[in-house]
Design a protein that fits this description.
The chain is an alpha/beta fold and about 325 residues long. It is built from 12 helices and 12 strands. Bound molecules: beta-D-glucopyranose.
């Protein structure tokens, strides 16, 4: 009897670590990012890793570099590594739906991160109020230039966010266009959000309008950078208001020097933390409480939507520097 007891105690010990606590399985979170070209996506990933460190969580990250087929293959690879939950920021909203199907076949839940995956049974969407992002940009620009000749650029057509940003901006600008106060000189999407594409479009617009452009709606800081390069070739940088988004260091510097009017700050630290906490819950089979739903063509996806903030010269120190997002020395360098 004694021997049986000591044997069973010995077996039990195999399931407990040296300190006596039950051995918990390491949670594996797969993270599939579209790119690391923009600073914000680098920060998102850094925040995931910061959250995971010391918490028994492993982050398995893949970068698809703006390639939908590669993103699918990379997600298959993550699933083969037996991840517990998958976080995907899709390069191509529509082409990403098989990722969700494949994950579900393996019993893995999927969080659509920042960008919505369309036509799929996405388990959770964690993002910002993206229509509001566009409204902030449209309102800011139209207050600076209530009447004038506008260049309107949108983000990548493959990104559902680009559609939402534009929708928001047009909520504000369309009435002014209809009234004839705003004349649209150009209205174009920017392939893959590439700054060089934005620069080329802006050069074309300036050429066609003989330099007479009054305002530019640039959808993010990357494209704003391209636009401002084109403006500076004609000595117009700082004279034509340009919007942005992401609170990138380069964008913040341009705001301080006066060549970019504003940016929209979306705190990637808060976003990644929200997605990380939700991922842990989903991995444990728990529900995540959500206040919103966003339709994706197939279902109304339960959504956590954070608030974007307008930043310009007046509040850049308070929001970005005091908030610890960007170091003052670098912004004002
Ligand atoms: C993100 C933006 C980013 C853009 C380009 C969008 O989906 O919401 O923050 O600037 O993609 O990467």
């Amino acid at each position: 009897m004694k021997r049986i007891l000591s044997l069973s105690l010995c077996c039990a010990a195999m399931f407990f670590s040296a300190c006596g606590a039950p051995k918990t399985k390491t949670i594996k979170i797969g993270v599939s990012m579209p790119t690391q070209r923009e600073e914000r996506w680098v920060r998102d990933l850094e925040q995931f890793r910061r959250e995971a460190s010391g918490r028994g969580v492993e982050i398995l990250a893949q970068i698809s570099d703006n390639d939908a087929a590669r993103q699918l293959a990379q997600c298959e690879n993550l699933l083969a590594q037996k991840i517990d939950v998958l976080i995907v920021a899709p390069h191509d909203a529509a082409a990403a739906s098989p990722i969700v199907e494949k994950a579900h076949r393996q019993g893995v839940k999927v969080i659509s991160y920042d960008r919505l995956i369309l036509n799929a049974d996405v388990d959770l969407y964690v993002s910002f109020d993206n229509v509001k992002v566009g409204e902030i940009q449209g309102r800011y620009l139209s207050r600076l230039v209530p009447k004038g000749r506008y260049v309107i650029l949108a983000g990548a057509p493959t990104d559902n966010n680009a559609k939402l940003f534009r929708q928001g901006a047009m909520n504000i600008l369309q009435p002014l266009i209809d009234r004839g106060d705003i004349k649209v000189l150009m209205d174009q999407p920017v392939k893959d959000w590439q700054p060089i594409e934005a620069m080329n479009l802006m050069e074309n617009a300036l050429m066609a309008a003989d330099g007479k452009v009054d305002a530019v709606l640039a959808p993010n800081d990357g494209t704003a950078g391209g636009v401002i390069q084109a403006l500076s070739l004609r000595k117009l940088a700082g004279k034509v208001p340009v919007t942005g988004q992401d609170a990138e260091l380069a964008g913040a510097k341009r705001i301080v020097e006066g060549t970019q009017s504003m940016t929209v700050f979306k705190d990637t630290r808060m976003l990644a933390t929200a997605a990380f906490e939700a991922a842990l819950k989903l991995a444990a089979g728990q529900d995540v409480e959500t206040a919103s739903k966003v339709p994706n063509g197939k279902i109304d996806v339960p959504s956590l939507l954070l608030e974007p903030i307008a930043v310009d010269r007046a509040n850049i120190d308070k929001v970005l520097v005091d908030g610890g997002y960007l170091p003052k020395k670098e912004v004002y360098e």
